[in-house]
Amino acid sequence: xxxxxxxxxxxxxxxxxxxxxxKTGLVHITTGELFREAIRQETELGKQAKPYYDRGxxxxxxxxxxxxxxRLSQGDCARGCLLDGFPRTLEQATALDExxxxxxxxxxxxxxxxxxxxxxxxxxxxxxxxxxxxxxxxERFQPPRQAGRCDQCGDELYQREDDKPETARRRLEVxxxxxxxxxxxxxxxxxxxxxxxDKSVEEVAENLLAVVEDP
Length: 215
Ligand code: AP5
Known about the structure:
Layout: E1 2-6, H1 13-24, E2 27-30, H2 31-41, H3 44-55, H4 61-72, E3 81-84, H5 90-101, E4 109-114, H6 117-125, E5 127-130, E6 136-138, E7 157-158, H7 165-179, H8 182-188, E8 192-196, H9 201-213
Bound molecules: BIS(adenosine)-5'-pentaphosphate.
């Protein structure tokens, strides 16, 4: 089963993908995290992606599509996966459809997590991440038990550079301009299911799980 978790920056895609991955056994693939890791490791891909990432812009399609298809070709994705942060342009969506079609597969569902803009900014500005295990927290909405420390692995938490207000606002603009048009693309294919993301993490997870499990 191939499921896309779709939504604006801060909508809760990563938070929900982690929960769904645990409940369904599907692999969670997040292009944002693949880029952050490449940038940390200073790989060739990381060096090419960094200027775009730092400005809150999309990394060019050619690089992003190649990275994602390479990841999808790995054995753990043979049964499907949960895609978080991909696709974000029409070109990425069609490349994904074509690659899956070549193997007789297709996207099954697109869960569109809807959250109002002012709430998105509140979520991004208070987010803390664990570099070690990828867990996500919010200083008010989902605080760790001990400030600055990950509940799961105990590592130190950090705030993403691209969550600073100016860059976060730019990411939201980029989303409206380049990514939101995909809502119509998937709606036209009958794959889009809208979920109210302005509820508790648990309620959103329950509604998304119902979407994924609906045959
Ligand atoms: P990426 O890492 O994908 O960032 P994003 O899409 O902007 O999404 P976020 O990770 O910011 O938000 P999220 O929806 O996962 O929310 P989260 O669960 O963390 O991309 C970063 C960059 O990489 C891009 O700008 C671009 O440069 C590049 N990139 C990545 N993919 C690309 C692509 N396909 N093409 C080109 N470039 C690409 O939650 C947010 C906060 O809210 C957390 O603090 C959380 O605790 C809290 N929260 C979550 N749910 C709730 C809730 N229900 N109630 C209250 N708080 C909640």
